[in-house]
Amino acid sequence: MPVTAQEIVALSIFTAVYAAIMTEKLHRTVAAMVGASLVLLINIVPWEKVPEYLDLNTILLLAGMMVVVNVSRESGLFEYIAIKTAKLSKGNPMKVLLLFSVVTALVSSFLDNVTTVLLLTPMLLYITRQMDVDPVPFLLSEIFASNIGGTATLIGDPPNIMIGSAAHLGFNAFLLNMGPIAFVDLFVTVAIIYLVYKGEMKSHGEREEAIKLAIMSLNEEEAISDPVLFRKSVITLGLVILGFFVHDRLGLEPSVIALSGASLLLLWSGASPETALEKVEWATLFFFGGLFIVVGSLVETGAIAQLAGWMVGHISGEGGAVLIITWFSAFSSAVVDNIPFTATMIPLIKAMGGNLNMLPLWWSLSLGACLGGNGTAIGASANVVVLGIAHRESIRISFGDFLKVGMVIMVSTVAVGTLIIWLRYIGL
Amino acid sequence: MQVGLFSELINRKFQNIAENRYREIVERYREFFLSEEELVIPRIFRVFMLLDRYSEKPNDDVYETLKAYPSARVCLLYVVEESLVRLVASTLGDEEAEKLRTLEINFGNNILDEVESRLKEMKFEVERRFVFGVKAEEPLKFKDDCDLFIISKHYGSETSKTYPVSPMVYRIVQHIEKPIIIY
């Protein structure tokens, strides 16, 4: 089938946007918006098709959760969690590694990964400084745990939100399919980190009391800047999570739950909507919007359908599709931002549907896109944020250092996930 | 070169994704993280405990704090204001002054005995001194030899509603740069 001029233009714009996002020479939002404007200006995507490509469910779910998280953050809730975790560890390096990994994964499964690591990393650095241990294994474990935790639920990582919206998969479906994978992978990861950095996990016998004293002197109550808002935030977050569990039964989209939670918290807390909405990451939302339209141009020109047709012709059955989608997604997400990658893969997988059972293909995409980010230093936003903080605190983690551990973690965790999906959907 | 390239890339991405939020969060954490100075536990080898007629006996909190420095040596100093004895001698005579001296010595030794025995129960090495001198100046002779000073807020004079800590204590504290516990 000959390639049309429109396809070439759409592919060129798409490639340029991808390159700009990868190199960050342009802010990713600017890159996506410029790309979207171009495909709209030259009418590759007609204006009336914009609502079709713009996935409002994803954008509004993200916006709703941003409001809930930003209002709750003002109460000191997340600092409270960080201090509690630190105190539970009692300054024992092994306990710090395990507890912070578990808490990071748990928080990441309900909040976005960037917020989670932004809130937990300063505390982790403070504790490792007190313990006088190398912070690198702890920071790496936090990154991996955040990406793994995000894999577990519909709202944990943007690729899952996009997949859930496109494939009409609910919160419980994600939890039942991706939750067990994330659970096993978390402990696989902690075990690998422990084996690689065993030497750093020894406690300083003679200084143990002083370390314990410094950590136990932290007062979690001091972190609560507004006790009333704190209680309201905990209740609202609880209700939102409960809402996600039952949204399928209620016949509601996850975005409706998130927006209702945001409205309830704004109403109940009396927080200024101007302040709360100021802190919504509009740049991220516009990035998503722009990206959906750029990828829409590939759908519109038929480029995606052609690629899907070619893939269906070369893939034998669901087993082959699971393996290819998982590993292709994992290695691609290690290099490319997983958000544009997932945005591109979703229409491709939709176009591949027909003869294949789509469910394992969606789980494969989620697995590869979320966990692939662990492969390299630039694979996911959580990696960039933790490494950026480390850099500011004069802790050097080179690209190569990250790659060595990250690739081992990525291959191991994706392999475990593939095995679970295979056993569940393909069989022996 | 390659490392620099990636570190620049990560830096650019970090700035775009989280720089502002990170600054806000770090600012909040600073409110309850202990600073480097606060985390240094002072090394205490010699503790100086100051007593006189007006001082309250050290309370349980003082003894509890001392437990943190089990290897420290405690120096007990009881001071009687010499000018007072001289004043009595010049106005009421030497005999009355001698009576006062004896009373003060007995009173001071009783207090010293009590505190010394409590400290010895706690396995502290104790040295005791009894001096007639200037209450505001005697402690300053030890200011360079001791690492921690313990002083009653009533030392030197009775306190009042207006002055919860005796003026003598204020005066001494101004001249000592070592940690001081006022009970």
Strand order of the main beta sheet of chain B, please?
3-2-1-4-5
| N-C termini distance of chain B | 62 Å
* CATH architecture type of the largest domain in chain B: 3-Layer(aba) Sandwich
- The percentage helix of chain B is 40-55%
Q: Assign the structural class of chain B, choosing from mainly alpha, mainly beta, alpha/beta, alpha+beta, or little secondary structure.
A: alpha/beta
The level 1 CATH classification of the largest domain in chain B is Alpha Beta
Percentage of residues assigned to helices of chain A: over 70%
What CATH calls the topology of the largest domain in chain B is: Rossmann fold
User: The biggest beta sheet of chain B, please?
Assistant: 5 strands, parallel
Shape verdict of chain B? elongated
Radius of gyration of chain A: 22 Å
Uncertain segments of chain A of ≥5 residues (pLDDT<50)?
none
Return the average pLDDT of chain A rounded to an integer: 90
Largest sheet of chain A: none
Structure description:
The complex is a heterodimer of chains A (428) and B (183). Chain A has helices at residues 5-23, 28-41, 50-53, 56-73, 77-89, 93-108, 113-131, 136-151, 158-167, 171-196, 208-216, 220-223, 227-250, 254-269, 273-278, 282-301, 303-314, 317-335, 338-352, 358-371, 381-392, 399-426. With 428 residues, chain A is mainly alpha-helical. Chain B has two domains: 2-36, no CATH class; 41-182, HUPs (Rossmann fold). The longest helix of chain B has 28 residues, at 94-121. A five-stranded parallel β-sheet of chain B has the order 3-2-1-4-5. In chain B, 48% of the residues lie in helices and 17% in strands. In chain B, helix 4 links the parallel strand 1 and strand 2. Chain B is elongated and about 90 Å long. The model of chain B has no long low-confidence stretch (mean pLDDT 86). Chain A binds chain B through residues 23-25, 27-28, 76, 79, 83, 114-115, 118-119, 122-123, 126, 130, 210, 214, 217-219, 222-223, 283, 377-378, 381, 384-385, 387-389, 391-392, 398-400, and chain B through 2-3, 6-7, 9-19, 21-22, 25-26, 28-29, 31-34, 39, 41.
